[in-house]
Design goal:
It is built from eleven helices and seven strands. By secondary structure, the chain is an alpha+beta fold.
């Protein structure tokens, strides 16, 4: 039987920062807006187009943005999804659709705070998709930019291997679905709604981790538990940092008076707003639970220390009579009562045993242990 070994899986723990996850802190907090970030160009770009009306749907895939320029003149609703970010492709597509350079800069940026902007007749939303890495037990983010214009929606994704938009693609293939009957702003709502709903999946995974950690701390906590507490607190920071701004993003859409947004779509964005408020409250609850788990860990450590000190104190008290008796009979005096008596040794040993036993019974009655 051939068994594949993966030594790198375990060798990484020989380095202390890998053992306690201290590198994760730098990954989370190393954001400096004064430094221009460097974005690596995608190896492969996949362009997916859904051009649809209530009666017909055209689905198309391509590997170049040049092939979708003609959809600018389309009178139907067009959704262009770009998987993989390349500067030249983004600039070419945005130039064709007359999208402001500030929006292009935001699309090409990394580690941006979720936000919503209205620039020259275009509504722009930037937010993050969240995924839970089961192997590393960490929350991973993928920045997505969505541009809403007249009869079109353009979305930019970093990772072509995963997203949460499959339900939208499925609904677009259904002739009687609301997506096919409504305007482009409803498509924007559906995309943001799916992203927000995916937050609850990530929080459910984190909730399972917190529950398991809480049970571990109650049963038997150790230094590994403390490291796990710190790691989960960092993941909650990532979660909250990505959820909280989305609340303002959706609220900005609701308050917007843009002609791109129909009044009848506002109620749907209000529903998304309710969901993001619920997600934000849940992230706050998780943070409170983690604080409680940390307090519980500290209490358990103090309790174990108190138990150790209690045992050591009792042992010291029980040995004190024997020490005193042995010290008395060990003094260098010529005359010590019973020191030369034939039963003197047995008397001393008896007292050394009986007195601690009497003290033990007394301690037990007082409820000291």
């Amino acid at each position: 039987m051939n068994v594949k070994l993966h030594p790198e899986k375990y060798l990484k723990y020989l380095y202390p920062p890998n053992l306690f996850g201290t590198r994760r802190t730098k990954e989370i907090l190393s954001v400096n807006p004064t430094i221009l970030p460097h974005r690596e160009e995608a190896d492969r770009v996949v362009v997916t187009v859904y051009d649809y009306t209530a009666e017909q749907l055209e689905e198309r895939k391509a590997e170049s943005v040049d092939t979708v320029f003609h959809y600018k003149e389309s009178t139907s609703i067009t959704w262009i999804n770009i998987d993989g970010i390349r500067k030249a492709d983004v600039e070419a597509l945005c130039t064709k659709y007359v999208i402001h350079p500030l929006i292009i800069e935001d699309i090409l940026s990394v580690d941006q705070r979720p936000k919503m902007d209205e620039v020259e007749g275009v509504l722009y939303c930037l937010l993050n998709m969240l995924y839970f890495n089961e192997e590393k037990k960490t929350v991973e983010t993928e920045q997505i930019s969505v541009v809403l214009g007249t009869n079109y929606v353009i979305s930019f994704q970093e990772d072509p291997a995963r997203d949460v938009f499959d339900p939208i693609r499925h609904r677009l293939k259904m002739t009687k679905s609301q997506l096919r009957q409504r305007t482009a702003d409803y498509l924007l709502y559906a995309m943001i709604d799916l992203i927000v709903d995916s937050y609850f999946i990530v929080m459910e995974r984190l909730g399972d981790q917190i529950e398991a950690l809480e049970e571990e701390v109650v049963r038997k906590s150790n230094k590994r538990s403390l490291a796990r507490i710190n790691q989960l607190r960092k993941e909650l920071i990532v979660l909250k940092r990505n959820i909280a701004p989305v609340r303002d993003l959706v609220a900005g859409i609701i308050r917007s008076e843009s002609e791109l947004l129909e009044d009848r779509t506002t109620k749907y964005f209000k529903d998304v707003y309710d969901h993001i408020i619920q997600a934000f409250d849940l992230s706050e609850n998780y943070r409170d639970v983690m604080m409680s788990v940390q307090d519980l860990y500290i209490s358990n450590v103090n309790l174990r220390l108190n138990e150790v000190m209690k045992v050591m104190t009792i042992v010291t008290c029980l040995l004190a009579p024997a020490t005193v008796i042995g010290g008395v009979f060990g003094m260098n005096f010529e005359v010590i009562p019973y020191s030369h008596h034939e039963w003197g040794f047995y008397f001393a040993i008896s007292f050394m045993i009986l007195v601690p036993l009497a003290m033990l019974v007394w301690f037990k009655k007082r409820g000291w242990f």
